[in-house]
Amino acid sequence: MIPVILCGGSGSRLWPLSRSCFPKQFLALDGNETLFQKACLRCASLVGDHIASHAPVIVTNEEHRFLAAEQLSEIKINGTLLLEPVGRNTAPAMTLAALHAQASGDPILFVTPADQTIQDDLAFQQAATKAIELANDGALVVLGITPDSAHTGYGYIKTNLDDASVEQFVEKPDGPTAQQYLSDGSYFWNAGMLVVKASVWLDATETFRDDIAKATNKAWADHSADGYFVRPNKVLFEQIPAESVDYAVIEKLPGSDTPIKMVPLDAGWNDLGSWDAVWHTTPTNSDGNALQGDVLCIDLSYK
Fold it and tell me: What angle separates helix 210-221 from helix 90-101, to the nearest 10 degrees?
């Protein structure tokens, strides 16, 4: 298994702390480790009697290469940094990682965004292990977050609970529809974490978005390496169509020849997409204020 950390987001909704030169995933919002470091450490824990983990592959922007490398060094993890000259969304980023991973045979890719938080590490490990086992049998596996509210800000995964197969991906719903999903019990939040063999992903990309597959292959065929920095051809990479993994491939898999499964994850997940989400995951004082660092509050109450 090779962890693939997608680390190219800007985190603009957490401005002004998160900025283009220092995006959300590189911030320490709860504790001493950054969200990126926590993601790497979580993936490093996914080893066991039947699972061997390689060093992680980090897909990030060229301009953030030293920031990512420094934060990896702080937690004593060695990894490969695939550097995108421009952002092309997650489908080309994951395809790039799969092409790189093929140098190690046909490993399972454990793909996760770098800017999420998990509170229950044991529950995460158990769900991830199950997903890796299913991926080893040839399925593309998504981790679905067990919803605790009728949230309208996430996409949902409709799942057959009998065999764990994914029936449908649903866009962000309105309030009444989200409440219906919550009551139904077979809908889960789509957190963007997926597990799949490199070959399965590359085949699926060729099937559903051959333009992305061919363009990414061309850019990768002329890649260069400088230590642990690996760069696709800049001119060719800029020609790749920009698309997310969901729109390009994942949402087209239900009912196709590629089996798609879902493993529920109930582990205190949060994507920290807003300051309100950060507040909800941070200990607060009697006035409802979440304080970090040397803070003096005067007549300030969050209630």
Answer: 50
